[in-house]
Specification:
alpha/beta; Rossmann fold; binds adenosine monophosphate
């Protein structure tokens, strides 16, 4: 299959050629015809599959085919709205819209919190065809009557599962109440929990269901490796790996913001250029870090999970888990940053004895053992015992149950799970102990090898396999300092920190 076979307008094909894409990815090959015909779509696909072009190209085609009715002042109304969970993803998607729409004559804008409203108001006043936004700031504009969504023809909910994880469900419902009832709706999600199914039922009308690459499958193009290492040697091992392998673009994950900051300090002292990206950083700092990293000026970008969501760097060669995530699904997301769209990538995890429990859960989830390789000079000290890992007010990990300290977390203010992070878009902690992904995840697919279900054509309902995770504890909001919804269920196996 070729892009020219899909019936896209020539200005779009030209832009695609300029991007250097030769063939459509599976999600593109399947989604583009559906969206071109005006149908609703439920897409089971995660970032890295090419889903952005999968919905953006046909969206642009449809908008180009029917020119906008301008208002009395000659301004175009907002005709397409794309909602994303994080600022980074919003920026990323809008950049893609601009690239793919370069010759379309259509305009776009990105809108998120953490930056001034006035420039956004000024931009809106000039007229915009396609708006990419995070929900909080979108609703702020709506509340201030600086935004008119009454002409939206196409509505996209991107990474819907992550939006729910982040407590955006109420905001999503508010947005749905604002946009016109008659519109084309597309919902993308990597998982299909009951909440996503309920949302899909509410939003979508006889959607086509397209799924590619099961969420918990790690792409074959990513070489995974574990370096067992002593707890105190991790920083030096990371420097050693970067220097001895001459790595120039490494995305490094830590569990916590302060861990990211401390690691950056260490890397800088060792002469390795590094910056942290997390919810405590200003939007300006986050944007600059990402831009420097993408341009190759920055060797090391140190990120926490939510902050890294949506980061899309073509052919990112190295991802390092400086600390393993306590939520095993996050491992799949993290290493999905490398080896994108068929490129080769390498994901390396530095694992100390405290994290063996996380490693076991990850291997169970991805259904394979990750090769272990001790780096000479960085062997884990013999006899090193697992220590509990403190995440905010929680203690988790291999050592958490020692000395009878493993017990259920007391409920806090009745909400069960604590909210992580800070007000301004924090991203931690999330807990290892939420209910596990179960065996009823969407049916296995080959990586990038999805298919429209055998029933063919459109299906009214979300996938039947259903619920593979319960609501996660909600990290704080990514797009401003509004309080999120969420809350969670009581967390088993969490303990209060014991004095260290
Ligand atoms: P996405 O899943 O939309 O975040 O896209 C992941 C990456 O794949 C982005 O870097 C895109 O530029 C790239 N990409 C999208 N479509 C194609 C394609 N057909 N061929 C090669 N790369 C692509």
């Amino acid at each position: 299959m070729n892009f020219t076979d899909l019936g896209l307008a020539e200005p779009l094909l030209r832009a695609v050629r300029e991007q250097g894409y030769e063939t459509p990815t599976p999600i593109q090959a399947q989604a583009i015809p559906v969206v071109l015909q005006g149908g609703d779509l439920l897409g089971g696909a995660q970032t890295g599959t090419g889903k952005t072009a999968g919905f953006t190209l046909p969206m642009l085609h449809r908008l180009m085919a029917q020119p906008a009715t301008k208002d009395a002042r000659g301004r175009v109304p907002i005709r397409a709205l794309i909602l994303t969970p994080t600022r980074e993803l919003a920026a990323q998607v809008e950049e893609s819209v601009r690239h793919y729409g370069k010759y379309s004559g259509l305009t776009s804008m990105v809108m998120f919190g953490g930056v001034g409203m006035q420039p956004q108001i000024d931009r809106l006043k000039r007229g915009v065809d396609i708006l990419v936004a995070t929900p909080g700031r979108l609703l702020d504009h709506h509340g201030q009557r600086t935004l008119d969504l009454s002409h939206v023809e196409i509505f996209v909910l991107d990474e819907a599962d992550r939006m729910l994880d982040m407590g955006f469900i109420h905001d999503i419902k508010k947005v749905l109440a604002i946009v016109p009832a008659k519109k084309q709706s597309l919902l993308f999600s990597a998982t299909f929990s009951d909440e996503i199914k309920a949302l899909a039922d509410r939003l979508l009308n006889k959607p086509a269901l397209i799924e590619v690459a099961r969420r918990n499958q790690t792409a074959e193009t990513i070489a995974q490796k574990v370096h067992p290492v002593g707890r105190e040697m991790k920083k030096d091992l990371l420097c050693h790996l970067i220097k001895s392998n001459d790595w120039h673009q490494v995305l490094v994950f830590t569990r916590m913001k302060h861990g990211a900051n401390r690691l950056v300090e260490h890397l800088l002292k060792q002469g390795i250029s590094a910056m942290a990206i997390h919810g405590n950083k200003s939007q300006g700092a986050r944007t600059k870090a990402l831009a420097d990293f993408k341009s190759g000026d920055l060797t090391c970008l140190v990120a926490t999970d939510i902050a890294a969501r949506g980061i899309d760097i073509d052919q990112l060669p190295h991802v390092v888990n400086f600390e393993l995530p306590n939520v095993p699904e996050d491992y799949v997301h993290r290493i999905g940053r490398t080896g994108r769209a068929g490129a080769q990538g390498e994901a390396v995890s530095l694992v100390c004895v405290d994290e063996n429990i996380f490693l076991r859960d990850i291997e169970k989830l991805i259904k394979r053992e990750i090769p272990k390789e001790v780096v000479p000079g960085f062997e884990p000290p013999s006899g090193e015992k697992a220590e509990p890992i403190v995440l905010g007010r929680m203690v988790i990990g291999e050592g958490a149950g020692r000395g009878g300290h493993r017990h259920h977390a007391p409920s806090r203010g009745g909400s069960g799970a604590p909210r992580g992070g800070d007000k301004r878009g924090g991203n931690e902690p999330r807990h290892h102990d939420r209910p596990r992904q179960d065996a009823r995840a969407p049916a296995p697919r080959t990586a990038h090898g999805g298919h429209v279900p055998a029933q063919g054509g459109n299906r009214a309902a979300a996938p039947a396999q259903g619920g593979n995770r319960a609501a996660a504890p909600a990290p704080a909001r990514a797009d401003g300092n509004r309080s999120g919804g969420g809350g969670g269920k009581p967390q088993p196996r969490l303990t209060q920190p014991k004095p260290r």
